[in-house]
Amino acid sequence: MGERSEFQGVIGRTRAESTPWWPPEPRPPAGAPNVLVVVLDDVGFAQLGCYGSDIETPTLDALAAGGLQYTNFHTTALCSPTRACVLTGRNHHTAGVGRVVDLATGFPGYDASVPPSCGTIPEILTPHGYAAYAVGKWHLTPEHEHHLGASRKRWPLGKGFERWYGYFDGETSQFGPTLQADNHAVPAPGDDRDGYHLTEDLIDHGLAFLADLRAVQPDKPWFLYLCPGACHSPHQSPPEWRERYRGRFDQGWDAWREATFARQIADGILPEGTELSPRPPWVPAWDDLSEDHQRVSARYMECFAAYLSHFDHHLGRLLDRLRETGELDNTLVMVISDNGASSEGGPNGSVNDARNWNVAEMSVEEAVARIDEIGGPTIHNNYPWGWTVAGNTPFKRWKRETHEGGVCDPLIVHWPAGIAARGERRRQYAHAIDLLPTILEAAGIEAPAVIDGVAQQPIAGTALNYSFDDPAAPDRHTVQYYEMLGSRALYQDGWKAVTYHPIADTSIPIDDDPWELYHVAVDPSECHDLADAEPERLRAMIDRWWVEAEANQVLPVDTDLLTAILGLERPGVPDRDHYEFRPGGGPVPETCTVNVRNRSHTITAELSGPLGDAEGVLLVQGSVLGGWVLFVADGHLHYAHNYVGLRTQRARSNAPLDPGTRTLALRFERTGEHRGIAHLLADGVEVGAGEIPQFTPVRFSITGDGLHCGEHWGVPVCDDYRSPFRFTGPLHRVLVDVEGEAFSDPEADAHDALRKQ
After folding, report:
1. Residue 599: Cβ within 10 Å count
2. Once rounded to an integer, what is the mean pLDDT over residues 617-640?
3. Which of 55, 411, 436, 642 has a 20 to 30 Å separation from 635 between CA atoms?
4. Which residues of the chain does CATH 3.30.1120.10 include?
5. Looking at the domain 34-468, which fold is it?
6. For 275-310, how does the pLDDT look when each residue is reduced to its tens digit (9 = 90+)?
7. Residues 604/695, Cβ–Cβ less than 8 Å
8. 578-741 topology per CATH
9. Rounded to an integer, what distance in angstroms lies between the CA atom of residue 483 and that of residue 735?
10. Radius of gyration of the chain (CA)
11. What residues contact residue 437 under an 8 Å CB cut-off, 6+ apart?
12. H or E segment and range at residue 240
């Protein structure tokens, strides 16, 4: 596959003596279904309506009612690794994605480089006549390859997709996202003031891709990989959706968890005899919170629920189109979440996760003061731990960890033409690596031994088709290892050995981590540790874990995340003293451009003609959540530094600029740790200054916002302008010169990377 077919016509001396020939178009097997894979983000086992929640998800519930609902499906505990499993059918370390791609190291299981020997679903399906499209979150390209000068080998189109519309990072603003289309960057088509929301935009693009296909090829099957932001932070949705849930979670997480568990038992979602795992002691009881703390915590959950329901509604638009065109019956729909509910909001929740990353914690009182903004464009909100535990009901622990709260997630399968059962549940063990072989068996396509001349590694997953019409079929996926950030587990024939390792803690040798043993076939919530009762079984399973680890490139087990962030040399853009930017290009990712943090620097905008009455952005980095911008407005030169959304510090020229001005500049003079004076200059003469008492220490953007020249794609850094605020004058280029060593805070940088999942 992938090679040019040998010519089978006749070539003579003349056209009359020759016979033309065209290679036949690839055709899928008869009856091959369309395939829609939906990967939800950070949605816990208990957060969909059909899994016991009171959050409104009628579209997803209808898919479950018309198909199958798996209640023993598992992931890797993190987003990038699970997505690698889904797309390749191999274990995440085998695919080189042992962690999120932001934590890549120079070991084969962790280099964030899915090898050609792990072919993806589109690389397998398209040679058989399928179209293949990706929409939404990607998070499988290393950060140093996000820039527009990078190789596209690990972008979606380099991995077999024919079209892509979405974003690279683990998260992005839903009102001002950082977007890519195919192999280039594009601005969002609007913002919150235009009624824009990314979820709607993604569904619109999915519909457009399918419409473009059907306009020319009405019978060609397609694979659509749909990955919304929902429900990774920020939990943002239109205001009318947020209002739908006002007051709905005032009972608190303890009562909500108990009510959800009762529904799970009553509806048969969980096996008879399942117990509710105890709330962890480090998570406060709802009744122990102050009234204000309860009020803002409830609002965080309202916004999460609104975000999920809003996506569910727009997924319904896509399914309605398929129903209208008669394609839904023969579309294999598979819906999963990439890991359990997230704990990254911390014990109190957050209105801006960048605060934590920049060591600028916020109080509950401040959150209460901004409660009406939560869920909107100026807030990067994430709920507190109590809701995390509730979202994973009945399991213990959460995302990033290998107990069931991190790895047991929803799976809905809907395919009327291929599955006779309706509204049934399946308890067979399943894992994210099982989706690819399931799709291939449904399509009647064998996994190729070679793709584009590269021998393929064996598919690790097990097709689930055997379970479609036989709820009593014995499990075929009987052994599965887990490893995530030092936490480990092995599932084997209904038993699970598991150990938790504190993230980034190198003081505890991994051999000192205590292992637990559960008979998860009868105790899925891991309430009864049988390690002492079954020491031989536990020892054998631990030994088997090491065998699986060696076979799947898990080794070395590395808990030194500071080294992962800073201590290893990785490909990328080296730091230098001088940078040049020109208008008209796309954004430059923060990790691939100049580092101005805690160092003196000069930004010089060179005009190709006199300034005149021009205005607009000269250079900008970040967003309303944190960043800086140099711009001209109302005839004055302005500089604004937004310190993690907490305060905006400004400098402004003392008088209107001379229309004949040819250069505009900012000279930032460092006067102390993360502080300085912003000097504004016109044609080399100082025209204004302002003190910047707190410069951002760690990272400006947490949602992928890059550096822009001549305009701003995204949510504005400050309220002095509205994006894109394109510079209207003769801007030639912008130069940035930095002094001293690039600043880095190893502890904070590691914390940053860990929270980007």
Report:
1. 17
2. 97
3. 642
4. 480-567
5. Alkaline Phosphatase, subunit A (3.40.720)
6. 999 999 999 999 999 999 999 999 999 999 999 999
7. no
8. Jelly Rolls (2.60.120)
9. 45
10. 27
11. 89, 447, 459, 461, 462, 463
12. helix 239-244
